[in-house]
Amino acid sequence: MLHNKTLFLKKLKPFFDHYAEIRGQLIFVLDRSKILECLSFLKNDKDLKFNMLHDLTCNQKSKGLEIVYQLHSVDNSYWITLKSLIPFESLVAPSATSVFVAADWHEREAFDMFGLKFTDHPDLRRILLPDDWEGHPLKKEYPLGGFKDIKPIWAYEEAEDLQNLPDRNLLNSSIIDPDSDDKLKVIES
Amino acid sequence: MSDPTDFLTTQTGTLLEKESEDRFWLNMGPQHPSTHGVFRILLETEGEIVKNVVPIIGYLHRGVEKISENREWMGALPLTDRMDYLGAMSNNMALTLPVEELMELEVPRRAQWLRVLALETNRLASHLLFYGTLGLDLGALTPFFFAFRQREIAQYLLELLSGQRITFNYIRYGGVRLDITIPIEREFRKFITGFRPAYEEMWNLVEGNEIFRTRIIGVGKSTPELLIKHGVTGPILRASGVKRDLRKDRPFAAYDEFDFDVITHDKGDTYSRWYCRYKEMGESLKIIEQCLDGMPDGPHIKKMPFFFKPPPGEIYSVTDTPRGDLGVYIVSDGSRFPYRVRYRAPSFCNLSVLKELLYGTGIGDVIAILGSFDPVFGEVDR
Amino acid sequence: MKLLEWRVRRVPVGKISLILGILAFVLFATWKIWALTGYWSLEPAFDSIRNFFLNLRDKFGGPGELPMGLYNTIIITLKLLGILVVLLLIGAYSTLMERKILAFMQDRLGPTRVGPRGILQPIADGLKLLQKECIVPLGADRNFHYLAPVICFIPALMGAVLIPFGKGLIPVDLNVGILYFFALGAFGELGIFLAAWGSNNKYSAIAGFRAVAQLVSYEIPMAFCIMSIVLLSGSLKIGDIINAQIEGATAYGGLGFPIWFIVPQFLGFLIFFLSAVAETNRTPFDLAEAESELVSGFHTEYTGLRWAFFFLAEYVNIFIGASIITAMYLGGYAGPELPFLGITLSSVVWFCLKVFLIFFIIVWLRGTLPRLRVDQLMMLCWKRLIPIAMANFLLTGIFVFANTVRLTPQLWPVHLENSAYTSIAAIVFILIAMFGLAWFFAKDLLKPIKERDA
Q1: A172 vs A166: CA distance, rounded Å
Q2: Which of A176, A178, A187 is the closest to C138 by Cβ?
Q3: What are phi and psi of B323, to 5 degrees?
């Protein structure tokens, strides 16, 4: 049994706008302002005890990003899904880290992939992509190949001009030769 | 030293206690030999004692979720193999399950049993690798060879079953790709008879080894509250005394038809994690035997077209993998392509607790604890 | 492109190693035959060299016979070369032996490809390392980085002169032999620390700190064990220590009855063995080069021949350590004369067998045990080994005193007939008492190390 529908509906009455049931899974949709309140209620309520934030992710809709929380009660083995729409005009959601520590990395990933900002997050940085990455890949407008042409790793800035010269090859010798002063050595063939 | 669980800071430069000249930052990884892949941890150490930990991930990010959105549903399936490459079978299972639920597919019973067979063999192989690499992390060579000798046979069996060694792509929407044949079944039985004595030997190698025990008992102690707070699941959570296994609580495939125990241990330290994984191998063996004995007849797959369109909707389904709960959140808009596929990787969540366990330990223990978490970085970075 | 091709081009390692292997084997066999027939004396060979020069003079004429100093130089150089080649072969072939023993323990075959049953593998490895470039990290202290392997390797070579290969086959029987061995051990630490410091690598630095702490600590129980042995034999000379075990007495002291020192010094043997394993940085004490923790410890930044020097030094050190253990506790080359072999040769055989036994146990440890943690390692030394070694030293003193009393009837409190029976009874009594006390402490030693209580 994944959930107790009547109990959930009774308990969550003050929080959700509407709910849906898809293939036996309960999904509650609530306003962004009520997220934190609802999460801490679910965590602390004695009958529900949703003590694990199982997942936190985003889903892009036409009007905004939908933030999706999957909560799990280890003791009762209940599962519940909470959703809230964050409109594109203000892509800010309250951070759940004050309630669930597990939200830390998930929120960083949501920020990384969707550009969704979380208020009061202790350390909102990119987590999977490099810090200087441009764009947020999981958004629908982000092309599969990325915005920019991908350069080969060995094409350093200094070597970019040399690379276009005919009949020349580049060999990165800085790693193997401790005596070389410049990063790159050009060897004519 | 204050309670290590209170410590929560991720900023690279944030110091917990006052700065001192005795400390320096040690960059462990991503090329360090025993970070189990491309993990990078910045350790601030005072002598050998770790005072600050900054885990950095993402070196193996390949954008599985983005690529999945740009492929058909069938094309998204092989990508899951590349996430947890040590338990690829369970990743296949994790994606097929919500799709089948969304489409309300009836999967043949034989297919479900074959799935259990494949999943458990793969779990066995994965735990054997854990056994070996934990030994290597602690500096012992022999457990590695003992474990890999058996793992090699398990991989061979999976190759017979699915045609692939690592990236199986075996569990498909509606069933499994290939049926089991009598010679393959015979090979399975041969493996089981050969595995039992080796299994005992592996127990003695660690349990009767004083240094092994002193290295792992009491190292990296965790409490159920801490682990649940961080969303840690799987053998690590079971090792701290929580009797929770999705194969029992939320059975998928045909797990409700099998008789097996959920292994728990109450200490929550590295030894407990070793113990749980070791004993789970025995349970897997039990399940495999039951599978071979009672394999039902019937088709092994419900034929599906290569391109199909699930009805619009969204499902979050969770399966148990050798590393913990793999949650898959799929959103379908009714087209041939997935609208959104999200993998909640168990290793990703498990690693987030590492920071608190590592605080105050030595460099040798860092490796032992990391090894006992058995992370797979294909899965963490996806 | 040419440079690239040059780098990629294959070198026929197999063929070269085969040829060099055969050469080395011939050299080794020749030396063996010389050593065995000539009782460590290469005089016939040296005479032939001299004759060769004389013949040259006779044929082509010349300024007269070469001065003796030159001959001596040539001969000493040849002797040194012989020892060097033998040592390098021992160092190289120890690796093969270790790999084969480990493979046997782990149900595999080990190296099989180079030569029959992989017999030429060490030579192929050596050649590969010879070809490799010696990389120096950019921020490294180049002088230290260059010096460290040399400083590590030279004490290992210097220690070789102590090895009692057989009866009368001790290259240099120093009168401070054991102390010399001890001093060289301390010298090796310097090399390790220089390597760690000069590499400019944090892992190496940690390994250096670990190594110094470990090696300095483990020298203390070792010193106590050596002192106990010196008490028993009355000499620091390796030859005397062995003679004390074979004959029972030397000019300087001894027990008066022949016995291998492992019997009265079983505890000391255990402690010395553990300390020797720790001194050579072997599992379970290989914290200074812990692969899984510190990448490769103090030689992380070393490649090619410089790395090979560390490697060789380690194995030569193991060999020397095993030889010293054999000499101190297992009676050195003592053993019954074997048929057809003669006294010298059978003593060599016995010595090699005992050294191999010790080596096998060291490899066995590597095959079974994981590595200790740093605090556990230091605890084992300071809380277990050192107190027990001190107690052992004290017991040995009492034992030697009792034995002296036994040997001098004037000191006896009660007058007894100095017959063989009383002597044997006294010896048995003393040995039983020693064993009892040793077991009392050994139980403590063998107890599990508790969880981190420091």
Answers
A1: 18
A2: A178
A3: -105, -10
